[in-house]
Amino acid sequence: RRRSSPFLLLLVRLMSNSSTKKILVLGCRWSGKSLLIKRLEELSSSNKLSQDEFLSTTMTVGKTLTTLHYKRNEHIEIHEIGGTLSSLWKSFYANAHFEKLLFIIDA
Questions:
Q1: Are 64 and 45 in contact (CB under 8 A)?
Q2: Which one of 67, 79, 94, 99 has the fewest beta carbons within 10 angstroms of its own beta carbon?
């Protein structure tokens, strides 16, 4: 039986009861949005990497959609908008229904 990440469980608990949960991920360029999404994708799959294993990412140009399968009939859609499109963030958020907004800050 596959164990879920505590962070993934927290995301699901914060969401509504719908079978498809939509999250919009925003943040400045190189803040780690894509890396976080890759880690969540890895945690939700059966192909586990070690915590120390290197994941390479490239800067997102435009928008990406990643679907994480959580339970048999439930999944999370993670919509990432690249930091270079920050001037368009407001229109993306205003024109689509997202249950949550995740803003990534690089410390």
A1: no
A2: 94
pTM: 0.74
The structure tokens 């164990």 sit at 3
CB-CB neighbours of 42 under 10 Å: 16
Residue pair 73/53 in contact (Cβ under 8 Å)? The answer is no
Residue 4 · residue 44 · CB < 8 Å: yes
Average pLDDT (79-84) is: 90
Structure tokens belonging to residue 11? 């995301």
Number of residues written out for the chain: 107
Strand partners, 24: 79, 101
CA angle 74, 2, 70 (to 5 degrees): 15
What's residue 92's pLDDT? 75
- Provide the pLDDT for residue 1: 47
Could you tell me whether strands 100-104 and 63-71 are parallel, antiparallel, or unpaired per DSSP bridges?
unpaired
Calculate the CA dihedral of residues 49, 54, 79, 23 and round it to 10 degrees.
Answer: 60
